[in-house]
Design goal:
With 183 residues, this protein is α+β, with helices and mostly antiparallel strands. It has one domain (2-36, 73-181). Helix content is 48%, strand content 12%. The chain contains nine helices and four strands; from the N terminus they run H-E-E-H-H-H-H-E-H-H-E-H-H. The protein has helices at 2-11, 43-49, 51-59, 74-81, 89-94, 108-117, 122-129, 149-161, 165-181, and strands at residues 17-24, 27-34, 99-101, 134-136. A two-stranded antiparallel ribbon has the order 1-2. Strands 3-4 form a two-stranded parallel ribbon. The longest helix is centred in the C-terminal third of the chain and has 17 residues, at 165-181. The chain starts with a helix and ends with a helix.
């Protein structure tokens, strides 16, 4: 984490840690990540400067690959691909806001939008909202961003309903190879 902090500071002006409101256990909290984007390069920047990428971003449920997203720094591409950007979430675990294994920590507005766009997922979203999110989880080690929101939500919902210590241990052991295989 120290090396990552130094690299972020040395290659891009701005804060080292990025925080964003996320929801879990039916309440909002500030989730921490290493900053991987240039300061000021938010969704509005993308919409105004890269309209074609903006359309793709919206169509892909607010996701672009790090390789095509102009907002991401060179170090950001690496730390995202290896999930190093997630390491500050250990502070969220220590604060009791997250767990090591659980569903993805979504933004409240993101879940509301998904519920409108994919009404068949409302039952999954309600279950996801009720659980403590995790740094890693079933969908993260099962295809990550290659999965549709509906499939991710169903996987997270099934994980929550059927969680067991054995399943959590298996996910923890799968996480490092999932991180490395994406780089």
């Amino acid at each position: 984490m120290i090396i990552t902090s130094i690299l972020i500071r040395a290659t891009s002006p701005g804060p080292i840690i990025f925080k964003q409101k996320r929801v879990g256990k039916n309440k909002e909290f500030d989730m921490y990540k290493f900053r991987s984007m240039r300061v000021g390069n938010n969704d509005i920047f993308l919409k105004e400067n890269y309209p074609e990428l903006w359309k793709k971003y919206k169509a892909n449920d607010w996701k672009l690959s790090a390789k095509e997203d102009p907002r991401i720094t060179p170090i950001g591409k690496f730390i995202r691909a290896t999930s190093i950007d997630e390491m500050p979430q250990f502070f969220n675990v220590l604060r009791g806001e997250m767990s090591l294994v659980g569903p993805r920590a979504y933004r409240d507005a993101e879940l509301n939008e998904y519920a409108q766009k994919y009404p068949q997922t409302k039952k999954y979203i309600a279950i996801i909202r009720s659980a403590k999110p995790g740094i890693t989880g079933l969908w993260q080690v099962s295809g990550r961003n290659d999965l549709s929101f509906e499939k991710r939500a169903r996987m997270d919902s099934d994980y929550i309903k059927n969680r067991s210590l054995a399943q959590e241990i298996a996910i923890i052991f799968k996480t490092p190879s999932s991180m490395i295989s994406r780089w």
